[in-house]
Structure formats: C-alpha cells, structure tokens
Amino acid sequence: DPCRNFHCKRGKVCHADKQGKPHCICQDPAACPPTKDYEHVCGTDNKTYDGTCQLFGTKCQLEGTKMGRQLHLDYMGSCKYIPPCTDYEVDQFPLRMRDWLKNILIQYYERDLNTSGILTEKQRNKVKKIYQNDKRLAAGDHPVELLLHDFEKNYHMYVYPVHWQFHQLDQHPVDRLLTHSELAPLRASLVPMEHCITRFFQECDGDQDKLIALQEWCHCFGIKE
Fold first, then answer.
1. Looking at the structure, do residues 61 and 104 belong to the same domain, yes or no?
2. Residues 146, 61 within the same domain
3. Considering the domain boundaries, does residue 177 fall inside one?
4. How many domains in the chain?
5. What is the pLDDT confidence band of residue 26, given thresholds at 50, 70 and 90?
6. Cα separation of 211 and 85, whole Å?
7. Is residue 200 within 8 Å of 93, Cβ to Cβ?
8. What domain range is 53 assigned to?
C-alpha cells in the first residue's frame, strides 16, 4: 500500500494515482466516519460539524478562499450562545487561569506519587515545592503576617505553571512562539466553560502579529519581567 507510511495534514487523506504514487487530496466531509453527539465541534463560522474530520475536510475544500482561511476549530461541542466577556471578567481571568494551571500540576504530581510517568524528574522537583506549600496553606487559619509573606512567595509559585503551559503548547515547531493552531487544543476545550478565553488570547497578542511570544504570554498572566 503506497499510502501506508505517507502522512497528510489534517483535512487531507492519501490517495494513490494510476502510477501508484501517493499524494494528498482533500477529505470528503460526507465520507467522514459517523460520530457521537459529544464529538461534535463548533467552527469559527458558528456552524456545528459532526467532528473534526468534517470540519477540516470542509476547510481543505475551501483552500485558497477567504472563507477557508477564516475557518478554524472554535471549540469542542455543538455551537451555542457564548456570552460576551466583560472588562471586569477579563481582568480577573489571568488569576483564575494561573490558579487552574497550578492545580493541574498539583494533580499530576499526586498521580505521579503512585505511578510515575506524567511529569519528568525535573518537573516533579519544581512542583514538589508548590504542592507542599499549597497543602500547608490549606491546613487552616494563619496570621496576617504569614499570609502576606506567602503572597510574595506564592507569586513565584505561579511562574512555573505559566511557563510549563507555554512549553506544553509550543510544539509545532518549538520556537518560543504560539500560533493559532498551537493554542487551539487548550482554547477549544475551555471556551464552553470559560467564555473569556478567546478575548484573553486575542489581547495577549500585544503586537497583533497573530503569534504569542513567551514574553507576551507571561505579561498576560501578570508575571513580572
């Protein structure tokens, strides 16, 4: 099979011509395998697609057109009304997001205590301090002086989770810049729950070059230079 090890990007499938030479052609959206309701996705055209196969197949067929350039995966699930994000909400968003990233790393660390493999040894050492500090703070009442001291200390505890998430997303290629497609896995899964995330990422791109550099990313999360 000439297509066995021939790779095509999303929205395309391998097809062998008469000479048996493999090349990529657009996926026919109608030929995509059937999906369950929970696999539906919403495109940036505010249209519900049966799954990512149908969405990216449609995008491929529109290649070279304005509509094709503008069509992306918006979020997981069927399209629904997403309320606008207020200025107050977007101001509070980095704090919630920072806390959420910290909690994800703590959960990974706790899982690694039983079965290792999620975090590397270097990551575990970083998260261990965050984990211990978080458990100590959750233990009960503390004097104001200690809480003030912890506020300064905890600020540094949030730096690593923010850097860690950037590194997790910066994969195609690893160039210290996040593209729309690199952000998509995180953004698409969060939009139905966090309606401010689209505006948050748009405002993160300070120079409007459609790329989020590490410095822009950290600035968005309130991390000092």
1. no
2. no
3. yes
4. 2
5. very high
6. 22
7. yes
8. 12-76
